[in-house]
């Protein structure tokens, strides 16, 4: 089974998964969500969903499921689907210019999950097409920059 798309249904709350079966047919599965709290954490619901629908959600990254659950949580709070999707996109987006040292632990954990998911998606391992052992890339910068702290004229011992 190969997952293709993951979405949400708001009434009644459910995850919808479009996948390709082992026979090559595209199918979809609707998985109802139970015990989603408007204001609580989605971690317990995520774990329960992964346990209940293991064969379908095993290959789907946890971050994607968590993001869909957050969208449903925002809809339950009274926001529109568009507002909820925009809020979840901001929450699960990593800005390269953002200082991650200033974030609280829960927000930092979300950002780390997103970065790890992106890394796993783009990682090339032995046996994958395009894998090359000991790949060397020249970035075209011929000048060497002096760091200042390791220059020979500023010898510490002299």
Report what the structure shows.
By secondary structure, the protein is of the alpha+beta class. 37% of the residues lie in helices and 14% in strands. It has five helices and three strands. It has helices at 43-52, 54-57, 62-76, 81-91, 105-122; strands at residues 2-9, 14-20, 26-32. It has a three-stranded antiparallel beta sheet with strand order 1-2-3, with helices on one face. The chain starts with a strand and ends in a 36-residue tail after the last helix. The model has no long low-confidence stretch (mean pLDDT 87).
Helix count, DSSP H or I runs of 4 or more residues: 5
Widest sheet: strand ordering: 1-2-3
One letter per element, helices H and strands E, the order comes to EEEHHHHH
**Biggest pleated-sheet summary:** 3 strands, antiparallel
Radius of gyration: 22 Å
Q: How does the helix and strand content classify structurally?
A: alpha+beta
Can you give the helix content as a percent range? Answer: 25-40%
Distance between the termini: 68 Å
Low-confidence regions = none
Name the average pLDDT. Answer: 87
Q: What share of residues are in beta strands?
A: 5-15%
Shape: extended
Number of strands: 3
């Amino acid at each position: 089974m190969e997952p293709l798309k993951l979405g949400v249904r708001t009434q009644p709350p459910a995850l919808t998964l479009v996948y390709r079966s082992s026979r090559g047919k595209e199918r979809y599965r609707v998985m109802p969500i139970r015990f989603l709290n408007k204001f609580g954490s989605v971690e317990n619901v995520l774990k329960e969903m992964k346990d209940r629908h293991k064969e379908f959600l095993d290959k789907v990254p946890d971050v994607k499921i968590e993001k869909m659950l957050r969208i449903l949580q925002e809809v339950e709070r009274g926001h529109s689907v568009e507002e909820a999707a925009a809020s979840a996109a901001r929450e699960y987006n990593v800005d390269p210019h953002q200082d991650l040292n200033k974030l609280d632990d829960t927000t930092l954990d979300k950002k780390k999950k997103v970065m790890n998911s992106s890394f796993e998606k783009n990682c090339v391992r032995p046996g994958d097409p395009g894998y090359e052992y000991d790949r060397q890339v020249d970035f075209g910068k011929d000048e060497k920059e002096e760091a200042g702290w390791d220059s020979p004229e500023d010898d510490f011992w002299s």
